[in-house]
Amino acid sequence: MRVEVEDLVLRYDDVTALDRLTFSLEESKIYGLLGRNGSGKTSLLSILAAVRRQSAGRVRIDGQPVFENAALTPRISLVRDTGEAITIGTVEDALYFAEWLRPNWDADYAAELLELFGITPKMSIGSMSTGQRSAMGVVVGLAGRAPLTMFDEAYLGMDAPSRQAFYDALLADYIAHPRTIILSTHLIQEVGPLFEEVLIIDRGRLLVQEDTQTLLSRGATVIGPTAQVDAFTADLTVLGTRRLGPTTSATVYGEVDEGRRRQATEAGLELGPIDLQDLFVHLTGENR
Fold it and tell me: 231 with 205, same domain?
């Protein structure tokens, strides 16, 4: 599903949560939605899911307005950090309603996911642990196969092995059944490898929208003897440095063209990729 957002504004009384956001998302891609706490990520996803109405601007999905569009909303899924079905009785009840609401529901795949996360159909949703509730939301989000599927920190309550199982399942099912997926997360190092394109919002405004590899090409990690690293990075924006004995690793933001790469090789320096989390911290930091 193609998403088009134009001059989107959302206000809570005298607080502007989203400030004239404009962007478009192509269909059948995995997007990373990044931002600091309070940046407007959850507000944006709520509007895309028709849970909340914008104060101004336009939101169209597949060319249609999304709010109060009964024909469109069954094709949109938003799974929050608390799961999607916490107050419903048992797991069986939750799956019954999910199948009723989601035209692309795959019951066999849902059963596979339940087994993967150690959830039994007779379990009470209300008695689940935080991790189990998160896993339940993930099951509903993946098995629903909504053309626009959004996860808003939906896996934070899960332990590391369960989160990795989710990432693997998401990627495998996305390859088999392409759709538009938006992942809002603070776990950038963990989830970052899934992103095909990244959106960064800050204080309700769009800061960056770019193909992940293109974004990461705007910086580099420089490793080598301290004196040579310091000389090479003197006129670049240094995001951070690590020193181990005579060796320094510096993360820089700025174009490293072929001339600079030759200079690095001649100085005996090693150039590596920039870390997406380091770049995010720099772009959204107080001194940006």
Answer: no
Grade residue 126 by pLDDT with cuts at 50, 70 and 90: confident
d(CA 84, CA 182): 16
Could you tell me the CATH number of the domain that includes residue 240? 3.30.70
Residue 53 above 90 pLDDT?
A: yes
Bridge-based pairing state of the strands 180-184 and 219-225? unpaired
**Within this chain, do residues 62 and 163 fall inside the same structural domain, yes or no?**
yes
Containing structural domain, residue 145: 3-210
Predicted TM-score (pTM) of the model is: 0.90
Order of strands, sheet of 247-253, starting from the edge strand that comes earlier in the sequence: 237-244, 247-253, 219-225, 270-272
Indicate the DSSP class of residue 124.
Answer: B
Q: Are both 62 and 145 inside the same structural domain?
A: yes
Q: Helices 130-144 and 107-116 meet at what angle, rounded to 10?
A: 150
Mean local confidence (pLDDT), 15-27: 94
Q: pLDDT band at residue 287, thresholds of 50, 70 and 90?
A: low
Note whether 246 and 125 are same-domain residues. no
